[in-house]
């Protein structure tokens, strides 16, 4: 059995929401995910599945040449096994295939783990949005000139 990354469907939303509540202080509602996958024509959402279990998820909006990462998360018990890297590589590939030439995202100033992940793929900090998360500033990161080098992904334990 191995990790697969597939488009997020309605049947995944309960599991996604459970992870969301564990990893974010202000989680999106189930309705927000359903709205994104059904009604937002600019959005693409994916789940990482390991033996059919939802272990992570990620999403992007692609508008013309720009892709915006809206979310990226891995279940706490599955973190540190390369799943975040696999999801991010997938988003980059999808953004590239949809015609984007650059990607951006916001990340909490305190979220060094996520910042390290993004830097690994060539994202650089280009600005700061004060109180973007109400309780904390966001760093704005950009990746120019897709596609980037593909990282070798380790085996999932
Ligand atoms: C950020 C997140 C998605 C990373 O997922 P993950 O599956 O644990 O990450 P990976 O195992 O693929 O590791 C990717 C890279 O992240 C960085 N990283 C992972 N754990 C780290 C840690 N404890 N400290 C610092 N950097 C770390 C490393 O650069 C790592 O690459 P390496 O293994 O080659 O050193 C995950 O921690 C998560 O879901 N966090 C909560 C939600 C979140 O903050 N999302 C980002 C919003 S912008």
Account of the protein in words:
This protein is an alpha+beta fold. The protein has one domain (3-144): Aminopeptidase (3-Layer(aba) Sandwich). 29% of the residues lie in helices and 34% in strands. It contains four helices and seven strands, in the order E-H-H-E-E-E-H-E-H-E-E. The chain has a seven-stranded mixed sheet, sandwiched between helices. The protein binds coenzyme A. Coenzyme A binds at residues 23, 72-74, 79-85, 105, 107, 111-114, 116-117, 120.
Q: Give helix and strand order, one letter per element, not per position.
A: EHHEEEHEHEE
CATH topology: Aminopeptidase
Shape: globular
What class, by secondary structure content?
Answer: alpha+beta
Which small-molecule species are bound to the chains here?
coenzyme A
Gap from first CA to last CA: 11 Å
- Total of domains: 1
The largest sheet is:
7 strands, mixed
> Taking all residues together, what is the mean pLDDT?
93
Biggest sheet, spatial arrangement of strands: 1-2-3-4-5-7-6
Query: Helicity level, as a percent range?
Result: 25-40%
- Could you tell me the strand content as a percent range? 25-35%
By DSSP, the count of extended strands is 7
Could you outline the blueprint of secondary structure elements for this entry?
Elements: E1 3-7, H1 13-23, H2 30-39, E2 43-50, E3 53-63, E4 66-74, H3 83-97, E5 102-108, H4 112-120, E6 124-129, E7 138-144
Parallel strand pairs: 4-5
Antiparallel strand pairs: 1-2, 2-3, 3-4, 5-7, 6-7
This protein binds coenzyme A (COA).
Coenzyme A binds at residues 23, 72-74, 79-85, 105, 107, 111-114, 116-117, 120.
């Amino acid at each position: 059995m191995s990790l697969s990354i597939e488009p997020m469907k309605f049947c995944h939303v309960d599991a996604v929401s459970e992870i969301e509540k564990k990893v974010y202080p202000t989680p999106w509602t189930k309705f927000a995910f359903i709205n994104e996958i059904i009604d937002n024509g600019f959005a693409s959402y994916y789940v990482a599945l390991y033996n059919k279990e939802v272990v992570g998820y990620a999403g992007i909006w692609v508008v013309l040449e720009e892709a915006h990462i809206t979310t990226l998360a891995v279940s706490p018990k599955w973190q540190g096994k390369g799943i975040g890297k696999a999801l991010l590589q997938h988003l980059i590939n999808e953004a590239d295939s949809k015609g984007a030439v650059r990607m951006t995202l916001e990340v909490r100033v305190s979220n060094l783990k996520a910042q390290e992940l993004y830097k690994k793929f060539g994202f650089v900090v280009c600005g700061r949005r004060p109180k973007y998360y109400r309780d904390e500033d966001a760093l704005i990161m950009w990746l120019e000139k897709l596609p980037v080098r593909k990282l070798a992904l380790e085996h999932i334990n």
